[in-house]
Amino acid sequence: MPFITAGDPSTETTAAVLKGLRDAGVDLIELGFPYSDPIADGPVIQASYTRALNAGITVEAIFDMMQSLREAQLPPTLAMVSFAIIFRYGTEKFVTRAAEAGFSGLIVPDLPADEAQDVSAITHALGLDLVQLIAPTTTEARTQEILDASRGFVYCVSVAGTTGVRKELPPELIEQLKRLRKSTALPLAVGFGISGPDQVAALEGVADGVIVGSAIVRIMAESATPAAASAAVRDFSKTMMSAVAVVKPSVRG
Predict the structure, then answer these.
(1) Active-site residue, 148 included
(2) Per-residue pLDDT tens for 93-125?
(3) The model's pTM
(4) CA 107 to the chain's CA centroid
């Protein structure tokens, strides 16, 4: 499940990369809505948000771009978006536009599960999944609460920190995933710090998917044209996918 930033450096590049990811055969795509005060993003993704905002990206421009791709047969695409953006836009209006534009769900990192009832009800009514996050520091009682509120898949944060490329995954992650597997039938997707095929292969049998962000965002930043970015991200994604056969999470298409 690759992550890319919408509008970095342009919606033209974003659309080209989305099609490249489709051609690579990825299972899901996470599309980040740029925000000036990101919650858990490291320097690579923060910089991409700044570039997109400086270029004039807006929520409406992201929706318009996605709607223009409705016939492109993209994999299920989820919006990674701060609740501050949703709240300012209007919760029901945002979710409605997201559904119209072709999103399959939302990931809202700053919306706790026990405060997500309204958003959850609206997304459910419109056929979208509201994906919840679980961190290594999440207590056992709160973990069950989050699992009960989760739809689509569970976003398993691998480290207690921000996003970014890391050389290796924490050893306690495997045990965390094994515990979660006993508590939910939902697919488990691991994010934060995944940047190479070896890390993907290490999760075989304990995770259903991996989320790769900073490594892809960096590739896009180093590409001179939309076509070059699309090709480079497509080829990188194929390399990551070749590491292991990943089970497709059950997010709606």
Answers:
(1) no
(2) 999 999 999 999 999 999 988 899 999 999 999
(3) 0.89
(4) 7
Kindly name the residue from 12, 23, 37, 41 that is annotated as catalytic.
Answer: 41
Q: What is the pLDDT of residues 15-42, one digit of tens each?
A: 999 999 999 999 999 999 999 987 767 7
Find where tokens 């075989």 sit. Answer: 204
Give the C-alpha separation, 120 to 131, whole Å.
Answer: 9
CA–CA gap between residue 229 and residue 208 (Å, rounded) = 27
Judge whether 204 counts as a catalytic residue. no
User: Please, what sign has the CA dihedral across residues 106, 112, 118, 124?
Assistant: positive
The encoded tokens of residue 125 equal 């009514």
Active site residue: 8, 27, 30, 129, which one? 30
Domains identified in the chain and CATH numbers: 3-241 (3.20.20.70)
How many residues are given for the chain?
253
